[in-house]
Design goal:
2 copies of one chain form a homodimer.
Chain A (H helix, E strand, L loop, with lengths): L9 H20 L2 H8 L3 H8 L2 H18 L2 H4 L6 H18 L3 H11 L1 H5 L4 H6 L2 H9 L5 H18 L11 H22 L2
Chain A binds a DNA duplex (18 and 18 nucleotides) through helix 3.
Chain lengths: 199, 199
DNA sequence: GTCTATAAGGGGATAGAC
DNA sequence: GTCTATCCCCTTATAGAC
């Protein structure tokens, strides 16, 4: 059990455990027994509260999609901040959130890939982003560049280190605090790099 | 069956099918029955040739890791090309390969994450890259910037669109040829952006 | 609401005929 | 080498007592 959440309701204990196990192992590799053990309860209770593994997963998945993409939408649509300020805010808030939730991007992107019609299509992310204030500002500044490039750049520079992290291994070459210190540096660097792409 | 590879040996038919199914669904979600159906043979033959699902997976996985990372190592260590030429080559060959194998990055990164000790640590990727000619050239040009930033940037700008692709959905907003055309543009753009980070 | 016991089926692996 | 039939464990889900 994570930290013996003895104060939480049973339903919330199961959700908390499910968040942890699903994001770490993915849907297919997760056993309901892993979740109930992590939650400190028994199998029957999971089905009593959530009917099935699949239904529980959908609930967690929608939460996690929201957590990954919902966080930047308000910034994208701020009406009065400049482009530069938006870029700083996106990099900064995103990296802070990802330091707390390093497994989030690989989990969400993998599961969306496994089930695009259920989780990807209804997002209409391209549409929402394309109509955002940020994209309007980009089009003014660089009318010749497809704004999708810029979107890939912001997200790629910010998210990719967290996706690639396991590759660099727990080997001596690389430890946790080094990683955190580097991505923290990137909060300042990414907006500078992105700005230089716009000149 | 993919394209009725009636000319291939049974062993190769199984590997071909395994490559396809494993990369599409991941280890945990793959059923050995999916593989043998794709290969057009029966369950017993898979075990006859490869002993177990796990052993077959290891073989495919090492191939795929090699495919994803092996491709850039020669370029990283070219002794006589300039930094700028290396960046062009990396972006170009990488994107060409990824257009042919769009599922590769998400698959490899997910599976390494699920089993870092088996697949990630022994790569010693950080070590190999840190000792490369490219990194030496970077240190000369920008001694104050941790070269890891640059590595994340090259790979992030190149790979991320392929990882994020399913998110943008098969919805009307986004189709396959649009995607290919955009990442093809990036073969030219990424080296320019990276160069501007070095000035 | 919570538990134990168990049903029902899926999925990896093998026996043994050809 | 290849096949069919089958074993048996593991996993999800439910029945039914408390």
């Amino acid at each position: 059990m994570a930290k013996d959440n003895i104060d939480l309701s049973t339903e919330e204990k199961i959700k908390e455990a499910a968040r942890k196990v699903f994001t770490q192992k993915g849907y297919a590799a997760t056993r309901t027994r892993d979740i109930v053990q992590e939650a400190g309860i028994n199998l029957a209770l999971l089905n009593y509260y959530f009917r099935s593994k699949e239904k529980l997963f959908e609930i967690i998945m929608f939460e996690k999609v929201q957590q990954l993409f919902g966080i930047i939408l308000p910034i994208l649509n701020e009406p009065s901040t400049t482009l530069e300020v938006k870029l700083q805010k996106i990099a900064s808030t995103y990296i802070d959130m990802l330091i707390q939730n390093p497994d989030l991007p690989l989990f969400v992107l993998s599961e969306i890939r496994n089930n695009p019609e259920q989780f990807g299509d209804k997002l209409q992310l391209t549409k929402v982003i394309n109509e955002s204030v940020l994209i309007k500002q980009l089009k003014e500044k660089k009318p010749d560049l497809n704004p999708l490039h810029f979107l890939f750049n912001i997200l790629g520079l910010t998210i990719f280190p967290f996706i690639a992290k396991p590759v660099f291994g727990a080997a001596q070459t690389f430890n946790e605090e080094m990683f955190v210190s580097i991505v923290n540096e990137r909060k300042k660097l990414i907006p500078i790099w992105l700005a230089s792409m716009l000149t």
